Amino acid sequence: MAKKKKEEKKEEKKPNKARDSITTFVRNMFKKKASVSNEVVIAAVLVKWPKSKIQGTHISFYKNKFRKEGMEIPKAVRKKKEVEEKKGKKSKKAS
User: Fold this and answer.
1) What is the pLDDT of residues 80-94, one digit of tens each?
2) Whether pLDDT at 55 is above 90
3) Which segments of 13-79 does DSSP mark as H helices, in order?
4) Is the confidence at residue 75, as pLDDT, over 70?
5) Is the pTM value of this prediction over 0.70?
6) Alpha-carbon span 6 to 28, nearest angstrom
7) What is the pLDDT, as a whole number, of residue 76?
8) Which among 19, 42, 62, 69 is least buried, having the fewest CB atoms inside 10 angstroms?
9) Is residue 51 within a helix (H) or strand (E), and if so which, with residue range?
10) Quick one: residue 54, left, alpha or beta (phi over 0 = left, psi -120 to 50 = alpha)?
11) Taking Cα atoms as reference points, which of 64, 58, 67, 24 lies closest to residue 39?
12) CA distances from 56 to 15, 19, 31, 42 (A)
């Protein structure tokens, strides 16, 4: 019987309206301009929802989710110089 009550409580859980709204807001930003930077999206979300704890990882999640849904969002292309700098930092740590 206890298991049934727990299952019923899970079903009764209401969807998080803030999360759904942020998802919709971010989706609309990418619909307007697919190449919006993560920083711009984060700033826009924080203006609308100041208590939000949104981070770059969340934007990456949204981008991947929207790509799977069929939106055309370009993947970030690193410049050759940035890649070389990161490789240089890794080799220094190994030393």
Assistant:
1) 666 666 677 665 555
2) yes
3) 17-32, 38-48, 56-69
4) yes
5) no
6) 36
7) 75
8) 69
9) none
10) beta
11) 58
12) 23, 15, 19, 7
Within 10 A of 32 (CB to CB), how many other CB atoms are there? 8
Q: Say how far apart CA 37 and CA 41 lie, in whole Å.
A: 7
Conformational region of residue 70, where left means phi above 0, alpha means psi within -120 to 50, and beta covers everything else: left
Write out the two tokens for 93.
């740590």
Query: Measured between alpha carbons, how far is 51 from 21 in angstroms, rounded to an integer?
Result: 14
Q: For residues 63 and 57, give the distance between their C-alpha atoms in angstroms, rounded to a whole number.
A: 10
* pLDDT exceeds 80 at position 74: yes
Task: For 4-47, write each residue's pLDDT tens digit.
Answer: 565 665 555 566 666 678 999 999 999 999 889 999 999 999 99
Residue count of the chain, please give it. 95
Cα–Cα distance measured from residue 55 to residue 74, given in angstroms and rounded to the nearest whole number: 19
Quickly count: other Cβ atoms within 10 Å of residue 38's Cβ.
17
